[in-house]
Design goal:
- The protein is mainly α.
- The protein contains 6 helices and no strands.
- The radius of gyration is 41 Å and the shape is elongated.
- The relative contact order is 0.02.
- It comes from Papilio machaon.
- This is 28 kDa heat-and acid-stable phosphoprotein.
Length: 171
């Protein structure tokens, strides 16, 4: 035990809920909800138990979303139209899943430029391979000149070789 008035909680053991326990709790909640649906809202003890646990049923939360929030104090009496005020709307999980399907994610300027750069480079490589770019034409002309020079050099060597062979045969 630490001495003194204040205790330090650092380094103490922490207890984490295991996935099995979480799954068991979820199954228990489902069983309770199923039982309640079968038997109906008959007693107030169950309702008070729901309030203590803090979970509440999904039916109750749906009805709360439909009603506008009750204004506190004088703000309900004074109507103010503030264009900068954003009213936070709670989004339901199933609606969030549906919203993302139709739209493409917005790309940042850098990402768009990078994709555009990659497309341009791929198009240039394709045109270069087909010989449509100026650089490709210059490369092909250079290669043709080198090929021609090598062919001429090979003919010259063959002619010199034949001349040597004829000179050795004459002796």
């Amino acid at each position: 035990m630490p001495r003194g008035k204040y205790t330090n909680h650092k380094g103490r053991n922490r207890k984490f809920t295991s996935p099995e326990e979480l799954e068991e709790q979820r199954k228990q909640e489902e069983l309770k909800q199923k039982w309640r649906k079968e038997h109906g809202p008959s007693s107030s003890e169950e309702e008070s138990e729901d309030n203590k646990s803090g979970s509440g049923s999904s039916d109750e939360s749906d009805s709360d979303d439909d009603q506008p929030a009750k204004a506190k104090g004088v703000s309900g009496l004074i109507e103010v139209e503030n264009p900068n005020r954003v009213v936070k709307k709670n989004k339901k999980l199933n609606n969030l899943d549906n919203l993302g399907d139709g739209e493409k994610p917005q790309l940042s300027r850098r990402e768009r430029e990078e994709i555009e750069r990659q497309r341009a480079a791929a198009a240039y490589q394709k045109a270069h391979a087909e010989g449509k770019t100026d650089q490709a034409r210059a490369d092909l002309a250079r290669l043709a000149i080198i090929r021609q020079q090598r062919e001429e050099a090979a003919k010259r060597r063959e002619a010199e070789k034949k001349a040597k062979d004829e000179a050795t045969k004459k002796r």
